[in-house]
Each structure stands twice: as structure tokens, then as C-alpha cells.
Amino acid sequence: MGRYVIRRLLQMIPVFIGTTFLIFVMVYAVGDPVNAMFGDRAPDPATAAELRREFNLDKPVWQQYLLYLSKIFTGDFGNAFNGRPVVELMADAFPITARLMIVALVIEMVVGIVLGVISGLRRGRTIDTTVLLLTLFVISVPTFVSGTLLQYFLGVRLQWTVPAVSPEAPFRELLVPGLVLALVSLAYVTRLTRTSIAENARADYIRTARAKGLPRRRVTLRHLLRTSLIPVVTFLGTDVGNLMAGALVTERIFNIKGVGYQLFQGIVLQNSPTVVGFVTILVIVFLLANLLVDLLYAVLDPRIRYA
User: Fold this and answer.
1) C or N: which end of the chain has fewer Cβ atoms within 10 Å?
2) What are the residue ranges of helices labelled H in the chain?
3) Percent of the chain clearing pLDDT 70 (strictly above)
């Protein structure tokens, strides 16, 4: 196991470098960040030249990337164009989005897996058809529509929750935004669990366990569900990064100043250091989540062993 983890960590290095380089080139090659800072006004040539020198924009892109890469390993992600360090923006935004992600992940895991198990064990019956129709409806509705409707009915009409989240973003205020963020993923988790449960329920090892006289609950929880969760865990591992990066719409609806808000502001204002810095952290989150998923395979299925 230890050698496998080390080998995977080493494999992450070229993936990280290649991904961040592509992001860096795409962000810095599109438009002129200095001109974007001044809006409709044309910047003074001397001022523009000084800003380009300060942010290393006067150098070739590959050289800018090497300078950026040498700094991030010391925790220096540079400064935003407003002069504030990008690390400070991350310290404010990532804890908020992490709490939102945890709420969404718990909702989609608990509700999605439970509905998937019930639907898979009763395949072809009324409850199975109902669950499939509901998940199809959820997948078909865009997030900005479901978010706006839930915000209006639960926050404005019924006043069960606040319409907008406060700057501190405590967990109690993130329940509805977390539900909105989790809805589409919840539908996919339900469908994946249902399909996996329905297929594995006909496997030989399940029939053997039932033939031995084991209780139905034990067969379902310890044998059927355990191996059926492998594709679900794979989806959840990739969804961790998607929930953090894809929270842009949800954060805009509920006025949450998290990662999505900072990325949106960075893209609109062409604040390249902010965009590249936040996306770099999201790349690391994706890589670590995939490593964790691979390690969980051995926990869920005893037949899987890593050398």
C-alpha cells in the first residue's frame, strides 16, 4: 500500500504541471489584464509598463509560468490586481465553499444511496419507476432554476430559511444552498446505486449468502451494498472537485462569497493571478480526491489489493 501511494503521488507531479501550465497559458494568453484593470479608460503607457513589470507580464508566458511555479511551493500565489494577496482571498473563500461542499456531499450520499438501494431492491416496481422519474426531472432542471425557486419558496414565502447567506456562512444557513448544489449529483448517485444494486443482487456470492441462511439485512448491508458502492465512490471522488468548482451558480444565487464568487469576479475583471491561483488549488483537490477513491476501493472490496 505504501509503495502504491508513493507511486501515485509521483504520477501526480507531471499531471499537476501539465494541467496548471495549460490553465496558466489559457488565462494569460486571453486579453490584456492591465487594460482590463482600467476598464474603458486607456491606461497611461508608463503606468501600464510598470504594472506589466510588477506582475511579470512583460516576460514570455513560459517564463511567467516558471516564476509562478517557483513561488507557489513557498505558499506565495502572488497578488491580485487590487494589491491583496491571493492567499488571503483563498483563506476567506475556501472554508466557506468547503462547508457548502460538505453539506452537499452528505445530502447526496445519504439520500442518494438510500433511494438507490430501495429502488434497486425493488426494480421494476412502482417505487422504482417513481424514483427514476424524479431523478430524471432533477437532472433536467438547471441549477439556477431550482436554486431560485427554492430560495423564493423556502426563504421568501415560507421564511424557513434566510434568502441570502451571511458573510460568515454557518452550516445552518448552508442547508438550502447545499441541497441546491447537491440535487443533480444526488440524482446521479441514486441512479448509479440503483443500477449497481440491481446487477449485484443476481451475483453468485449474494445467492450463496442467502442460501447459507444469513439475514436479509446482513446480506444487503455487508455483502451487496459494500461491493455495489465502488462506482458510487468513483463518482463521489470526482464530484468533490466538481462541487467546489461548480458552486459558482449556487453561490451567486445565495450571495455566498466562496470559491465560485472569487472565480467569477476574477474572470469578469480578468484578474489572472486570482483565477490561476484558485484553479491550481482545485487541481490539487481533484488529484487528492482521486487518490483517496483508489484507496477506498481496497476497503470496499477485499479482492482488491495494491502492491
Assistant:
1) C
2) 2-29, 33-37, 45-54, 61-72, 86-121, 126-140, 143-150, 175-200, 204-211, 216-218, 225-228, 230-245, 248-253, 259-268, 272-300
3) 90
Say which CATH number the domain at 217 has: 1.10.3720.10
Can you tell me whether residue 85 is helix, strand or coil?
Answer: strand
- 45 lies in some domain: no
Res 36: pLDDT: 64
Q: 307: pLDDT confidence band, cut at 50, 70 and 90?
A: low
DSSP state for residue 79 in the 8-state scheme: B
C-alpha grid cell for residue 229? Answer: 458502492
pLDDT tens digit sequence for 286-296: 888 888 888 87
How many C-alpha atoms does 277 have within 13 Å on its Cβ side? 28
User: Grid coordinates representing 121?
Assistant: 431492491
Q: Which domain holds residue 120?
A: 87-269+287-300
